[in-house]
Design brief:
Blueprint: H1 3-21, E1 46-50, E2 57-61, E3 68-72, E4 78-83, E5 88-94, E6 100-105, E7 118-123, E8 129-134, E9 140-148, E10 154-163, H2 164-169, E11 181-193, E12 197-205, E13 210-211, E14 231-232, E15 248-254, E16 259-264, E17 269-274, H3 279-282, E18 298-300, E19 320-324, E20 335-339, E21 351-355, E22 380-383, E23 395-398, E24 404-408, E25 413-417, E26 423-428, E27 431-432, E28 435-436, E29 452-455
Parallel strand pairs: 13-14
Antiparallel strand pairs: 1-26, 2-3, 2-29, 3-4, 5-6, 6-7, 7-8, 9-10, 10-11, 11-12, 15-16, 16-17, 17-18, 19-20, 20-21, 21-22, 23-24, 24-25, 25-26, 27-28
The structure holds 4-nitrophenyl sulfate.
Amino acid sequence: MKQSNYLNIILIFITLLSCSEDNNITILPPEPEEPVVIIPEQNTVGLIEFKPKVYDGYTLFTPSKSKKTYLINNCGEVINQWVSNYNSGKSVFLLEDGSILRAREILNPNIQIGGIGGVIERFDWRNNLLWSYMHTSETFSQHHDAVPLKNGNILLLIAESITKTEAIQKGRNPDTMATDLLYTEKIIEIEPIGNNNANIVWEWNIWDHLIQDFDITKDNYGVINENPQLMDINFVGRSGDKADWLHANSIQYNEELDEIIISFQGTSEIMIIDHSTTTAQSTSHTGGKKGKGGDILYRWGNPMAYKLGNENDRTLYGQHYPHWIPNEYNDGGKILIFNNGLDRPTGDFSSVNIINPIKNSQGQYIITSNKPFDPIKPEWEYNDIGNFFSEIISGAQRLPNGNTLICEGQMGRFFEINDKNQKIWEYINPDSGTGILSQGDQPLDNAVFRAFKYSKDYPAFKNRELITGNPIEQNPSMTNCK
Ligand SMILES: O=[N+]([O-])c1ccc(OS(=O)(=O)O)cc1
C-alpha cells in the first residue's frame, strides 16, 4: 500500500474519533424492510409485480369495454366497485364525498369519434345513481373528459359539427374536407341541477380563435406564424381530410392559475387557455385575468401547427392527459404528459414527459418572436423502448412520494416507477370485452383510458369502513400480498 493511502486511512480514523467525541454522529436505525411480495411468475392478469416503496394508495379505473369502475389496492384486491348500465365513455373521477363521476358511452351516428361519451353519471359510494346528464344531439356530443371542479361544477369536452359552408366561411380549404362536416372542439362548464339536469355557466370554443392564410377574402385571413395565439384551420395534422380534425382527448384544470390545459391528438399539441373570462370574453381576444380572452395562452408539441419549425421541432405524438403536477409534489407546478408516440419518426414507443413552460413575473407565458414556445425539449422523460407503447388513450400521474403511475392504455396495463425510473409495481386489467378473464388467460381487449391513484388520506375514504374484497380476475393465484 502506498504511503498516501496509509495517511488517508489515519485521517479518516481521526475524523471519526473526533466526531464521536463531539457526539456528532447520528446513527439512524435501519429502515424497516417491506415484506417481499411473492407473485407467481406465470401471472398474466391482475397483480404482476410488487417491489418495495410502491406508493400506498387506491387505484381507480373504468375499463373501456366494461360497465364497471373499480377501486383496487396495491395487491389488486377490490376496495369498491360501481356498476353502470353502460360502457365507459372514458374518464372517471372519485370525488371527495366518495361518489364517482363517470362518462358513459352513447353512440351518436352524427358525431363519430373515438372516445365518445355523451352522458355523465354520478354514483355514490354504494352505487346509487345520484345524477345523470345527457349532452349529445344531432350536432354535438360530450367525449373523453368530464372534470369535476371544487365548487361542484363540471367541465365537459364537446365535439360540435360545423357545416361545410361555415367552415369555408372561416377559410377552410374545401379540398381538405372529405365530408360536409368539420368538428369544432368546445369546453362547457355545467352546474348540476336536480338529478338529471344542468345549467351551462361558461363556454369556450376554438372556433372563435381561428386563423388562415388560404382565402384572403375572409375576415380571419392573417400571417399564421405571427399569431400563435390562434389555430390555423388548415393545419390538418394527422386527420387529413376527416371531420374529426382536432380530436381533443383531454382537459384538465388548474384552480390556482384558473387555466385549462387541453390535449389535441389530431395536431399533436397541448394548449392552455384562460378560464377566468366570461363566456362573452372567451369568444374574443381580450378580457379575463390574462387579458387575452379565449385566445391560446400557451401551446406546445408541434410548432408546425403555427408555421414555426419543422418535424425536428416536434416533441409530441398523439399525446394524452397533460396536467399540472400538484405544487407540493416533486416537479410540482410543471406539466406531465403521456406522449403516446403515434407517428413518431424514430419508431413506435411511448414516453412520459415533463415540461416547465417559461413565464414572466406577471405569470404570462413567454414566446420569443419567430420562435416556437419553449422549452425546446422536455426536461424529463421515461421510456422503455420495445416494452412500452400505446398508440391511443393512456395517461400518467406523479404521486406524492415522487413515484409515477403510468397507464399504458391499450394494453390495460398500469405500472409504477420510482424516482430512478425503475418499475416497482405492475397490474394488468382483467375486465375485458369478452368478460372477466381468469388468471393465466392472455389479456386481450382490456383497454383502460386512464388510471388514477388516490392517497389513503383522500377525504373519500375518511370515516369509511373499507372492506378488502377479492381480486377482479377469476381463479386468482395465491400471493402473500397484504
Ligand atoms: O377505439 N377507441 O376506443 C378509441 C379510439 C380513439 C380514442 O381517442 S384517444 O385520443 O383517446 O386515443 C379513444 C378511444
